[in-house]
Amino acid sequence: MEYDVIIPAAGSGTRMGAGKNKLLLELNERPIILHTLEVFAGEPDCSKMIVVIQPKEEKIFREMTVGSPYEKKLAFVYGGAERQHSVYNGLKAVSTGIVLVHDGARPFIRRPVIKQLVSEAVRSGAAIAAVPVKDTIKQAVDHEVVQTIDRSSLWQVQTPQAFRLPILQQAHEWARAEGYLGTDEASLVEKKGDISIKIIKSDYDNIKITTPEDLYFARAILEKRAQ
Ligand code: CTP
Ligand code: MG
Predict the structure, then answer these.
(1) Least crowded by CB within 10 Å, which of 15, 61, 79, 198?
(2) Is 144 in contact with 61 (CB distance < 8 Å)?
């Protein structure tokens, strides 16, 4: 089934502390964002990659991708102050019935997961990638433990998140009207409350490159995959 993917890439990388957008940092001598784009570039069902960028970085992103084999699949859209605003802007460029949202900062997503997400979104409307929580999770107030949360029902959520287009559009419009800000797309759909969201088990190595140590993990993942 054909789909467009919105790739938010308009962040500042504050937690990485590199003094620039972390997606421009290199892994194997190529910017992180190119690793992410290449995954979807190789997906025949992906018709368009809508990359959401900051206006001041447009030249860099265009120059990085000009002449690439997937140039025709690319569309650039300007982002907003928060990730949610960036995705909202990206939604306006979608022209397929199924839409995926995938963080530019997750270059290690595997194709079978993408395929399962798309199938599930077609079938039920909304599907997200996630992995079971491995650690013991405790709730605390002022560094004092309140309780241990039963982790058997807990999932650590990733992207991609896949939706039938009207479901995500309506959830975003609802969030805008309510002034609700979520940390992922599914939370908007959940809060709006009228459809169930399915989980597709993903991989622990689909990390979001966020803090400096994630670059070490990222290099190790690349090395392992090259073997
Ligand atoms: N993003 C975006 N628009 C924003 C903020 C974030 O498109 N206003 C994108 C980032 O570029 C990233 C993804 O959303 O690909 C996930 O965000 P995050 O990991 O938080 O990246 P940053 O916001 O760049 O990092 P930080 O929060 O540390 O500043
Ligand atoms: Mg952020």
Answers:
(1) 15
(2) no
